[in-house]
Amino acid sequence: MARLAFVAALIGCLGSPVGAQSPPPPPARPRVIVVRMVERVPYGIAFDPVRVSAQPGDTVRFVQAGGMPHNVEFRSVPMAADLGELRVGPMLVSVGQTYDVVIDGRFPPGKYVYVCTPHEVLGMAGIIYVEERPR
Predict the structure, then answer these.
(1) Residue 21 and residue 99 in contact, taking contact as beta carbons nearer than 8 Å
(2) How far apart are CA 133 and CA 27, in angstroms?
């Protein structure tokens, strides 16, 4: 009997029995997602990559990597989004300049289409898919 109590105590110290649920993983750390503004042949002016996925807390960093001025203007957003001053970003004119967009409460889950205002007619557009953070 004492031996059985010892084994039970030992198992209790070692943790849950096999098959028991483990605690959920810690939340993912916010990421920095880089989108370059480029000019390249033969495809012309573009955001690279064109499509990205982000979660709340992530930062989408737009990096000027070309010789022409570029910006970010959100054109199509979910109905619940209220981007305020983030709707149109600054003009980036020097290689290496950046514009950061933090995916916060202004960005409910959904599809966000953006363009470079001066190069929209040339097809310079991209998409951010904002996903719900896994629980």
Answers:
(1) no
(2) 8
- In tens, the pLDDT along 101-114 reads 999 999 999 999 99
Residue 69 counted as domain residue: yes
R_g of the chain, CA atoms, integer Å:
23
* Angle CA 53–66–122, to nearest 5: 75
What domain range is 82 assigned to?
A: 30-130
Percent composition of the chain: helix, strand, coil (DSSP 3-state, to 5): 15, 35, 45
Residues 6+ apart with CB under 8 A from 12: none
Q: Is the peptide bond before 109 cis (omega within 30 degrees of 0)?
A: no
Partners of 59 in the β-ladder:
32, 102
Closest by CA position to 128, among listed 63, 57, 74: 74
**pTM (2 d.p.):** 0.77
In a domain, 21, yes or no: no
Answer whether residue 109 is part of any domain.
yes
